[in-house]
């Protein structure tokens, strides 16, 4: 029997999606690393470092696509200390800095993104993104009369979470089926979605279906905007790596009863898809509204990554924020 600690509990919640959304996953992982560090009793720094590496690996293996998770873990683990006390202080400070930096980034994205919204706009969103929501909420608080169309987002219905946020904020909301995206696009002025990862060529990895929304927007000449904190940019893609697309359990798509009825049926359940950069008009980050082509600059200059480091991290199996 595995003993449940605060860290394994967080890992379990990320796996089963009680904690979900790239930003929240990253912040919860940073908090769990801090709690783990503070709870370790040993005075032996080697033993402490080993236990922190174990904690890193447990959280790292929970979900593979959101780059914010390894970026948060690396940010917390960036410490050099000779004593356990110093290591604990550094880890706690790193975690706190990551969490407040992340919260401020979402707020800033809200402020920058709200400039893109005009009074009377109808905006479509897909899945549930706190960065996209920050834009809607800021625009609405500024007195803009907006209507947000939220997709249901099968199979986990994250659209219901979006609808719940919007309704609680008083923002006029319309819920549609995923299959109604193209039909509905003619009523839409702008699409705004979040990000699980942005690759070096500016392509977007987000909830499966995002690329179909982007295609429909492109066909209808509707602007497509992505809201992404800079820690969603993937340094390892600088080295030519692909972002792994999570394949989730078939039971999310079809219940066990029907699966038993069709025992030879194969089910594919990719949780994310890739929207090529040519369908993205703008990425709103906390450092400004940029074109997808600037992703290379964000990774290299803002995050400070060189090709050699990306290659090294690729071998270690991690991304990094700075
Ligand atoms: O695709 C999802 C969530 O997928 P899941 O529900 O599978 O985690 C969100 O659009 C991004 O994570 C961005 O969210 P945020 O802006 O909140 O970081």
From TrEMBL:
Entry EC number(s): 5.3.1.29
The superkingdom listed in its UniProt entry is: Archaea
* Enzymatic reactions: alpha-D-ribose 1,5-bisphosphate = D-ribulose 1,5-bisphosphate
Which Pfam families is this protein grouped with? Answer: IF-2B
What InterPro entries is this protein classified in? IF-2B-related (IPR000649), IF_2B-like_C (IPR042529), Initiation_fac_2B_a/b/d (IPR011559), M1Pi_N (IPR027363), NagB/RpiA_transferase-like (IPR037171), R15Pi (IPR005250)
Q: In Gene Ontology terms, what is one molecular function of this protein? A: S-methyl-5-thioribose-1-phosphate isomerase activity
Kindly identify the residues recorded as the active site.
127 (proton acceptor), 196 (proton donor)
What GO biological process terms does the UniProt entry carry, in alphabetical order? Answer: L-methionine salvage from methylthioadenosine; pentose catabolic process
Which segments cross the bilayer?
none
Assigned keywords, A-Z: Carbohydrate metabolism, Isomerase
**Amino-acid positions noted as binding substrate in the UniProt annotation, renumbered to this chain:** 20-23, 63, 206-207, 232
Q: Does the keyword NAD apply?
A: no
Checking HAMAP family in the record gives:
R15P_isomerase
Similarity comment: family membership: Belongs to the eIF-2B alpha/beta/delta subunits family. R15P isomerase subfamily.
What the protein does? Catalyzes the isomerization of ribose 1,5-bisphosphate (R15P) to ribulose 1,5-bisphosphate (RuBP), the CO(2) acceptor and substrate for RubisCO. Functions in an archaeal AMP degradation pathway, together with AMP phosphorylase and RubisCO.
Recite the other comments. Reaction proceeds via a cis-phosphoenolate intermediate.
**Name this polypeptide is given:** Ribose 1,5-bisphosphate isomerase
Query: Which species is this UniProt entry from?
Result: Methanocella paludicola (strain DSM 17711 / JCM 13418 / NBRC 101707 / SANAE)
